[in-house]
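Suppose you are handed a protein chain with no further information: no name, no annotation, nothing but its sequence. What can you learn? This example shows the usual starting point.
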Amino acid sequence: MALFQFICAIVTRALFILVSLTGIMRVTSVKNDNYWFLTFLLLPLVAEMIITLKRRKGKDYKWFSPPIFLFLISIIPSIWILELHHRQDNSNDHQCKKLDSWENLLKVITLNGTHRNVTYLESLKNFNQVLFNVCSNDWILALHQILLILLIVGKWLLPLGGGVTRDELSQLLLIFVGTAADILEFTSETLSDVKDNSPQLVYIILAVWTWSMLQFPLHLAVVNTKSDGEGDEAIQETSLLKKHSTDIWAIVEALFIQDGPFLVVRLVVMACYGIFHQMLVFFTIKNFLVVILNLYRLVVIFQDFRSSRQSKIEGSSADP
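A reasonable first move is to predict its three-dimensional structure. Written in structure tokens, the prediction is:
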């Protein structure tokens, strides 16, 4: 079992490094410049892997996941550069190969299959040329999708940290799936609405997207803070934050990391930039409902805690 966990820890971090290198390679090819200095961002991830494998046998931490955080640090700059380059220079989009149908996808995959008696280097060169001819928008979208999928699968494969149960991990993974879907929808839909004369809006959207990605290294909304020996009476003596820590952290994440910022950005898009369509209105209403329901949930938690504490005080004062 320990060997399996050790292998999972290595494989997960190797996938993180591979995807980050893929993003750096794409940046170098589209910018026609030497951006290999971005590989220095992989050094903290490699150092973390060596230290964690040596001291913790690859096990993750309870509240925070360093490999996921360092993976985000290594891949997010590449996505920023690709997004900004795509907005500034999309003159070759009409000549690229779109991946919007099975037919086009098969053409891209089987392009090298028509050539026979080619060397390995020639085949690799042709494959790189095929990848380079794929549309920038499809490349960026695929990188977003692979990033989010790998964050979920990577967290699943990483050995559990101390104090984290399988039940908590399953809850966390389900939350990650919903969070990833919302984030991908936010970036793809909102960036597609940006006009060429609104570069500042691209910076705002990418900044909010980067901020929302910080949910993945954190486990505060799921991991329980109480110990196994604490009973109901002990819980009554704790503070509001300790008793409802998971609920409160989930509300904080929704209000200040995901749905709250998403709502603000969409309102700015409609009010300040004059962009208005049916799907934008729908997702704005959705974010608004999530914010309101989380505020309502916070009020309910506070009232229930106050009433239970008051009833306990009255019960103890009535005892002789």
